[in-house]
Design brief:
Elements (H helix, E strand, L loop, with lengths): L6 H12 L6 H39 L2 E2 L4 E2 H9 L2
Antiparallel strand pairs: 1-2
Length: 84
């Protein structure tokens, strides 16, 4: 694969090598791609989690769920969990 970079991208790669973080342009690019993949995976997981929580809230509201003897509502439990 042959990749052409603009001067700014070349400068960023050279800076990483000069700073001693990496030994070659290939190492810089591999790490950048790994970081991108991790970030994309995290975004997907966060979106999935939000959707699942929303579904749970809708279900709990529809069926008026409470937890335990004190009648703790699921929405309150989720709200408390977000503090941590």
């Amino acid at each position: 694969m042959d990749v052409r970079l603009d001067s700014r991208s070349q400068h960023l790669i050279e800076q990483q090598i000069r700073d001693g973080r990496y030994r070659s342009p290939e190492e810089v690019i591999v790490r950048a791609l790994e970081t991108l993949a991790e970030r994309e995976s995290t975004r997907w997981e966060e979106q999935e989690r939000r959707e699942l929580v929303q579904e749970m809230l809708e279900f709990a509201g529809k069926h008026r769920f409470t937890l335990g003897e004190q009648g703790l509502r699921i929405r309150n439990l989720i709200h408390e969990a977000h503090k941590y």
